[in-house]
Specification:
- The chain has 443 residues and is an alpha/beta fold.
- Helix content is 54%, strand content 6%.
- The protein contains 18 helices and five strands.
- The protein has helices spanning 3-22, 27-37, 49-57, 70-87, 93-105, 119-138, 142-156, 165-175, 185-207, 211-220, 230-242, 244-252, 254-259, 264-276, 291-301, 307-327, 365-375, 416-419, and strands at 360-362, 380-381, 403-409, 423-430, 435-442.
- Strands 2-1-3-5-4 form a five-stranded mixed β-sheet.
- Strand 4 (423-430) and strand 5 form a beta hairpin.
- It is globular, with a radius of gyration of 24 Å.
- The chain starts with a helix and ends with a strand.
Length: 443
């Protein structure tokens, strides 16, 4: 790297570590941290990679809650390095610098990377698989095939969206008339490696009635309801995340971009989730793996004279992001407030009211994860309360106590004698304006 590029790379890495350290931890992150404590071959909500990475985060908790994100920061920065390495053969150091600036300021891929999510390893392994695909087309070495299979297998352990990589790759092979790249022994080795790495997820689903596959399919493709504005919401949200000037640069060089081997890895994910938006609401982050190749296309094919527009666009983008970040404490309706950086605050008053000598069950996996993280003692969730989650699969939570306190919201009044025959409520105590516990025992 050139000095300016290297400086931006390492300074941004340190800044992200600091931002992650001081930014409030979300309830989902508390939940993923519990995955790292109670490891599994896979999980109901997602494949296992986020939990396995959180296993590395366990000792970092002593440095501060936000430090549990640091392994994810490393993954996100290594993703940048993959694309810098790829672009080096096509563009100048100046163009690499502006690519890095674009990537760091993107709300999801850049700033969003300070929050630990399954998207971070997904984007890393998607990017790695893309790089190996380019090498397979160019050189066709056995090491490239094995690298591709490894990246796809580990990507499947990260998030199920990695399956969209396969049609992208097939489109690329058809586009380049490179069918011989599929019909050889090295391609078979690639498939074998990918399949072996996927086995933990398939085995877990096989032994749990395919629960995770079914949940994700219903969540992503079999929506229970649809509104006419879902496709418009999807398109509008993606335009805001991508920022229209960058799409204009790609459009301006559309002929060159369409012929570029990266094009299928951009267009297919966006098209697929546009189709999905006619079945249900599409969350903004579901297309995150298509953002890196999109910006790479922009930088590869932009003309030198257009760099000034890149600079001006980044200034406007930075201003908008600054306003959005500043709005978080003041507006629950602000778009960026969906990061839910302050959602855990509602549980904070409970910490001073918990008697750790008693057995508690909670009404939600978020509360169970929060209390388990904060106290270091496992808080299981009450069976039949809320949807299925990882607490349903923790062995220690399978033992239903004969006497416990049920921690719930103030308005909730479950009928224990009906839900759990033989159990009755003996007492009810309000412990905060929004929460109470109900003493329950078996009689």
């Amino acid at each position: 790297m050139k000095p300016s590029l290297k400086n931006l790379f390492f300074i941004s890495f340190v800044l992200k570590l600091i931002l992650a350290w001081i930014t409030p931890v979300t309830l989902d992150e508390y939940y993923y941290f519990i995955w790292g404590q109670y490891l599994s071959l896979s999980y109901f909500d997602h494949p296992p990679m986020v939990g396995w990475i959180m296993m590395l985060s366990q000792p970092l908790k002593t440095l501060g809650e936000g430090a549990i994100r640091w392994p994810f920061i490393l993954f996100s920065h290594l993703t940048l390095l993959i694309w810098i390495q790829y672009l080096r053969a096509f563009v100048s150091s100046k163009a690499l610098f502006w690519f890095l600036a674009i990537a760091l300021l993107n709300p999801l891929w850049g700033l969003g990377a300070i929050v630990a999510t399954p998207d971070i390893p997904l984007v890393f392994f998607w990017s790695l698989a893309t790089l190996f695909s380019m090498r397979v087309l160019r050189d066709g070495k056995l090491s490239d095939y094995l690298g591709l299979g490894t990246a796809l297998g580990l990507g499947f352990l990260s998030k199920y969206q990695i399956v969209l990589f396969l049609p992208c790759l097939l489109i690329l092979i058809f586009q380049k008339r490179a069918f011989q790249k599929l019909l050889n022994l090295k391609a078979l080795f690639s498939v074998i490696v990918a399949t072996l790495l996927c086995l933990p997820v398939f085995y877990w689903n096989y032994t749990h009635d395919w629960a995770s596959f079914s949940f994700q399919w219903k969540h992503g493709m079999a929506g229970k309801y649809w509104k006419w504005y879902f496709p418009l919401e999807y398109v509008g949200t993606q335009l805001l995340i991508i920022f229209p000037p960058f799409l204009y640069f790609v459009y301006k060089k559309s002929k060159a971009c369409i012929k570029d081997p990266l094009f299928p890895f951009v267009i297919f994910p966006f098209a697929f989730f546009f189709y999905s938006s006619f079945k249900g609401r599409v969350e903004a982050n579901w297309v995150i793996m298509a953002l890196p190749p999109l910006y790479v296309l922009c930088i590869k094919h932009i003309e030198q004279k257009d760099f000034r527009w890149i600079k001006q666009s980044l200034c406007v983008w930075l201003l908008l992001l600054g306003l959005a970040l500043a709005s978080i404490p003041f507006s629950r309706t602000a778009p960026i407030s969906r990061l839910n950086l302050y959602e855990a605050q509602k549980f904070e008053p409970l910490l001073g009211q918990i008697d750790l000598s008693q057995t508690y069950l909670t009404y939600s996996y978020q509360l169970s994860a929060f209390l388990t993280f904060k106290t270091g003692q496992l808080f299981c969730k009450l069976p039949k309360s809320g949807r299925i989650d990882h607490f349903h699969f923790i062995d220690q939570c399978h033992e239903f106590p004969e006497k416990f306190r049920f921690l719930t919201e103030d308005w909730s009044n479950p009928n224990f004698s009906e839900l759990f025959p033989g159990y009755v409520e003996t007492n009810e105590v309000s412990i905060s304006p929004k929460f109470k516990y109900m003493s329950v025992e078996k009689r």
